[in-house]
Design brief:
By secondary structure, this protein is mainly alpha-helical. It is rod-shaped and about 60 Å long. The chain is 93% helix and 0% strand. The chain has one domain. Keywords: Membrane, Transmembrane, Transmembrane helix. This is DUF3265 domain-containing protein. It comes from Vibrio alfacsensis.
Length: 42
């Protein structure tokens, strides 16, 4: 049972890391998009 527990924890950490990565990418895209729009508007 201990190996399965450790494996579950590892998978949970990996899943959280992916969620964090996608959240960061989404925020960067949103900021860059609004920044480009601000540059294009007079």
């Amino acid at each position: 049972m201990e190996v399965a527990h450790v494996l579950t924890n590892c998978l949970r950490v990996i899943r959280n890391a992916w969620h964090f990565y996608f959240a960061v990418v989404y925020v960067i895209k949103a900021l860059c998009g609004s920044f480009c729009i601000a540059l294009l508007t007079p």
